[in-house]
Design a protein that fits this description.
The chain is an all-alpha fold. Among the domains are: 13-83, no CATH class; 166-218. The chain is 69% helix and 2% strand. The chain has 18 helices and two strands. The protein has helices spanning 53-66, 73-83, 87-100, 104-117, 123-141, 145-163, 170-182, 186-199, 203-218, 220-234, 238-251, 257-268, 272-284, 290-302, 306-319, 324-336, 340-353, 358-369, and strands spanning 13-16, 37-40. α7 packs antiparallel against α8 and α8 packs antiparallel against α9 (203-218). It is flat and about 80 Å long. The protein starts with 12 loop residues before the first strand and ends with a helix.
Length: 370
């Protein structure tokens, strides 16, 4: 075994030297015994008796995932592709399947490995950007907004790298458009979809991009006003955000989103009655989103309207059965209603979904001591 000039890699990675006598060609690839080989040992950090190609490939892929700039990276890429010629397509399919099944950490490592294995291929980087979006959404649903923002920034940086590629990669613009749209950066979203309309060749995507651009350009001024209000509230300038949201409401009669911002700002300021009125107005205008129902439930909880609060949360849970934030709030309402056994059940469910949830753990500890 030998140490290699590489940062600390996750997993049980060791570097070995191949004896010169074993340095035989693999197809057109020539093994160089002077270059140390990373090997993934799995659970046993010392046993090399069962050394296999799979262990060598796994070690190289992990190095390429976490140290793609390693001086021996080109050699490791060629080595992996010589041993497993179809591995790029195979791993791509596995990574996408893992991401769809919610195994996001494993999917992330796979996409990083693919990016290290084929640095000129944009697909792994795009998959990584989409995965960061999914991670941020999951953290938001768990109420971990600071972590969600950090992961969302990783998605933003990944899209920036994709958009700078030469030649341009059309799908990066299409997906970045939805990323900006979801984060209410409407002007940026419009530019992304306009770029795809110039670069892309997928008919269905072209039609969708042009449709979205048309809607965004018509609503440009209103969307800018909405974004300002949203940003003010998110940055803790609730009074300014509420004023801007009310201007949006006056200019866009019949659109519920503005009333959501009015309610959100008031709820953050502890003005629960005003917040409740605004959220109810949003519902009357057609809102049926989980965030609206949850925010309204919080206001009603603080106003001691526990039966109403519970109904909102149950309605939200039908839409997102594994939303930790909703389940946790149901536990709080149940506890305030004196239904301690039921409350404990909700908090245990939260811990089943998110074992590290500190609020659920604290609530269960309090319930156990009463």
């Amino acid at each position: 075994m030998t140490d290699a000039d590489s940062p600390r890699l996750p997993g049980n990675i060791v570097f070995i030297e191949i004896p010169a006598a074993m340095a035989r060609p693999i197809g057109s690839f020539s093994v160089d015994p002077a270059i140390p080989i990373p090997v993934e040992l799995g659970q046993d950090a010392t046993d090399l008796s069962g050394l296999s190609w799979e262990m060598i490939v796994a070690g190289m892929l992990r190095l390429l995932a976490y140290d793609p700039g390693n001086g021996n990276a080109p050699y490791y890429r060629d080595f992996v592709l010589a041993v497993k010629p179809g591995i790029f397509a195979e791993l791509s399919e596995t990574g996408i399947l893992k991401a769809r099944n919610g195994d996001l950490d494993v999917a992330e490592e796979i996409f990083r490995a693919l990016g290290g294995l084929a640095p000129d291929a944009p697909e792994p980087t795009l998959n990584l950007a989409i995965l960061y979006e999914d991670k941020a959404d999951a953290l938001d649903r768990s109420g971990k907004t600071d972590l969600a923002d950090a992961v969302r920034n990783k998605a933003f940086d990944t899209y920036k790298n994709l958009l700078a590629l030469e030649p341009a990669y059309p799908d990066a613009f299409f997906n970045a458009g939805f990323f900006y749209l979801k984060n209410r950066s409407y002007e940026q979203a419009a530019r992304m979809f306009e770029s795809y309309a110039e670069l892309g060749d997928d008919e269905a995507k072209l039609e969708k991009a042009k449709e979205i651009v048309g809607k965004l350009r018509v609503r440009g001024d209103a969307d800018s006003m909405f974004k300002e209000a949203y940003d003010f509230i998110r940055m803790g300038r609730e009074e300014e955000g509420i004023r801007r949201a009310l201007e949006f409401v006056q200019a866009n009669d019949g659109i519920w989103n503005g009333w959501f911002l009015v309610g959100w700002g008031n709820r953050r300021l502890g003005r629960f009655s005003e917040g409740r009125d605004a959220f109810i107005k949003a519902l009357e205008l057609g809102a049926d989103e989980v965030d609206v129902l949850n925010e309204l439930a919080i206001c009603e909880m603080e106003l001691d309207l526990l039966s109403d609060s519970r109904k909102r949360l149950e309605r939200a849970l039908l839409k997102e059965p594994e939303n930790v934030k909703i389940i946790s709030n149901l536990g709080v309402v149940a506890r305030r209603q004196g239904r301690n056994d039921e409350a404990a059940g909700f908090f245990r469910t939260v811990l089943d979904l998110e074992p590290g949830d500190a609020l659920a753990r604290a609530q269960l500890d309090e319930l156990a001591s009463t």
